[in-house]
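The data are set out underneath:

___
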Amino acid sequence: MSNISKDYLAALEDFRKEIDSIDHQMVDQLSKRQNLVERVVALKKAHNLSVYHPAREENLISDRRQQARRAGLDPDYVEELYRIILRRSRVEQTGHMARKGVRPGATVLIVGGTGEMGRYFKQWFINAGYQVRVMGSKDWPNIAQLCEGIDLAIISVPIEKTADIIKQIGPYLPENAVFADVTSIKKSPLHAMLQAHTGPVLGLHPLFGPTTSSLDKQIVVATPGRDDDACQWVIDQFSIWGAIIVMSDADEHDEIMAIVQALRHFTTFTFGQFLASKKVKLERTLEFSSPIYRLELGMVGRLFAQDASMYAEIIFASRERRELLKAYIEKLNQNLNMLEKGGKELFEEEFNKIAKWFGPFSEQAMRESSFLIDKLIERF
């Protein structure tokens, strides 16, 4: 028995040494890959190219999945590894690109630059080599001086103040300066900017908050206003920083954002409100919960961990949004009859109609949510 034990230990030690050697090689290869990535970054910076190339990444993933099958490995396992590698690569690239300016030395005025989003964009523009001026509520006496010679003015103030501030700023802007806003509605600000300024106008809506450490794959909606060519450098700057630019007109933007933001946040708020009214023991429910419930409850808790005024601005931003939410509540009330009658058949009929409407997206949603659930299981 002792001889077998010694042979076993010796063989185990040999295997471990070989595994360690392979691990060292893998790290060395990752280092070589990163060095090549840095050379790619240098080329992209020189030619003002964006970091994210979705077609290239998906082709690479497909190739690695095929290679995994040939090697007898689980393609999902290899894909997950490469998603991590590619994500890290993009973050490194966007970190370098943060110091790349499309128009370095140009002057940017951030109106509302003392707020959280204003301070956030101030730092990005400074890092990219721009001259940045900040205007807060106490700086109105200096408005003419602050606007003199600027190339871009960004309005980053609460929604209810945006149109009024645009009207006051507009007359002081140089004719060729780009006038832009970063609010979550677009029709009203765009109209106000077009009225107040005769030069280039651009609506922007960054779909992220000031705690975002990287713009990798963060979405920025751009709504054209006037003189697209003169505004393009601003869009290019966000793209170089790693953001995905989604072009939209103001009407489409506001219609979709009413669903994506206002309705989603309001339903989440209502769910949390109901749980609080029932004094539900959250910790105890988690002991009984599936991973999907924990994920859903986590999104509810995430909402209430943030600033109430920010969500109030989004939800109550326009009459159209409030009308949509009223229609949602009316739809919920229609289900009362179903509940009172115990209408299982009616529920199933409605369920199947809705499932047909969702179509292929349901399968996509299953895949994506299953991935998130698996990650949640690994975490907890």
Summary: The mean pLDDT is 90.
